Structure formats: C-alpha cells, structure tokens
Amino acid sequence: MVHFVGAGPGAPDLITQRGAFLVQKADVVIYAGSLVNPVILGMCRQDCSVYNSAHMTLEQVLQVFQKASEKGQEVVRLHTGDPCLYGAIREQMDALDRLNIPYDDTPGVSSFCAAAAALNAEYTLPDVSQTVIITRLAGRTPVPESENLSTLALHGATMVIFLSSGMLDGVQKALLKGAYTENTPAALVYKASWPEEKVVRCTVGELAAMGKKHDISKTALVLVGDFLSKEYQRSRLYDPTFSTGFREAER
Ligand code: SAH
Question: In CATH terms, is domain 111-228 a member of 3.30.950.10?
C-alpha cells in the first residue's frame, strides 16, 4: 500500500495526526526533499528506508513502490503542503493503478493556508473578493493559454501565485495588465511556518523590487488583492440583524 501524505507547509507540527501516524508506521518513506522539513523524518522508525525524491525520476520512485509492494511493505510518499496542488501525484497514481498497487491520500495544510496565517489574513472578505485564484506564471512548465496570469488578473479577485517568485518582474507586468493597479496591495511570503519565514507587505508596483530587496526568489508565494487592505464589510453570518439556520435575527 502506498500512502500519499501532505507534509504541511514546513513547521513539523503542521502535519495532520493521520499523516504523522502513517509516517511513524511506514517501512519506506519517499519525501520531496526540496520542501519537506527533514525534522518530520525524525518521526520515522529507525529501520525505515528513507528516499529523497529530489534526486529521483518518476521511474525510480515507481521502482521503490513496486519493490516495497512485493515485500508487503507500507510506503509513505510525502509531498509538501497538500499533495493536490502542483504535487505531480496524478502520474504516480495512474502508474500505481497499472501496477495494481493500492494507494490512498491524506491531505495536508497547503502553503497558501500557511501564508494567510502568516499575514493574519482572510482571502474571502465580503464586498472585496469571494474568490481565490490559485495559479502560477508560465515558466519551464507551460500554463494553458486561457489561464495566463494577465487574463486571470482581469477578475481582480484574491490571487495566490505559486512557483513564480523567481520571476517577479513577469508577475508584476502580468498583474498590471489585469484589474490591479500599481497601488493594489500585495505580499510575498517566504517559507511560511518555517523558522526563517519572511513576510513582506507591499503593492503590486513594488513586487519585483521587494523580491530583490528581501532576497526572495524561491519557496515563496505572491499574494495579491484588496483583501490585504483595511476596507471591507463585516460578514452577514455574525450580523445580529441576519438570521441563519442556527440563529434567529435579533429584533
Ligand atoms: N503542494 C504544495 C505546493 C508545491 S509547489 C502546497 O500545497 O503548498 C512548490 C511551491 O509552493 C513553491 O515554489 C512555493 O511557491 C510554494 N510553497 C511551498 N511551501 C511554501 C512555504 N512554506 N511558504 C511559501 N511558499 C511555499
């Protein structure tokens, strides 16, 4: 059996209890070495075989899955954040289907949640934005034409941009072609939840300069939108004049 597990954004106590339990029990752990906090590997059994997938191809990962499965061993495939975002899990799952090896998936705290926490921010504010666009700038991995950053930026919604902090000039230009202005609030969050976390609040017009100034070019998220400003409407859910399924409005 192979267990895909979200390791969380970095802080070792942000893995879920289910994820931690699976890591503690595993015979084999393959972790995404570029971003999974190695402290989590301290939870592994002494006799656990640990592999860093940063040095492996998909084929080599599959070989480890297959050998372990032949021996009846439990494998944990540890991905950073939540495996469902930019995790390359689908190709592994499809291969496991072909090999008839069973698997399951344990979610994790994605870095986009940890970044909001670092900012004490709420992405979905009434009258500001009720939509979060999670995307990336096209780099070596292409992005479908209909999803290019400047087209998505036309919405003016809350945006969380992954895998792009090494291309902040391009990010800034694309955002300015959309509904955002030079003065739209933005933030860079580097290594959210790690001891070396950096949080830089700025504007869209300052993104590239701030990346340079604070030496942020990888392992960071770019956050954009008016959710980072002070203006918003309070929520109806907790408004005394508003009835919900659980509470009558006050008269
Ligand atoms: N599955 C992961 C994302 C993997 S893609 C998740 O759910 O978070 C790798 C990208 O995620 C990095 O380039 C960076 O943009 C972002 N990232 C991962 N961990 C991060 C962290 N702790 N702080 C900020 N960004 C992070």
Answer: yes
Is the overall model pTM greater than 0.85, yes or no?
yes
Q: Ligand 1 centroid vs 220 CA: distance in angstroms?
A: 7
Please indicate whether residue 35, judged by its CB atom, sits closer than 6 Å to ligand 1.
yes
CATH top class, domain 2-106:
alpha beta
Q: What are phi and psi of 126, to 5 degrees?
A: -55, 140
- The string of pLDDT tens digits covering residues 11-23 is 999 999 999 999 9
The 132-136 sheet, strands edge to edge:
132-136, 158-162, 220-224, 185-190, 198-203
Please work out whether the CB of residue 37 comes within 6 Å of at least one atom of ligand 1: no
Question: Ligand 1 centre and the CA of 102: distance in Å?
Answer: 27
Q: Where are the domain boundaries for CATH 3.40.1010.10 in the chain? A: 2-106
Residue nearest atom 9 of ligand 1, based on CA coordinates: 163
C-beta of 188 in contact with ligand 1 (< 6 A): no
Tell me the per-residue pLDDT of 43-78, one tens digit each, with 9 for 90 and over. Answer: 999 999 999 999 999 999 999 999 999 999 999 999
CA distance 177 to 153: 7
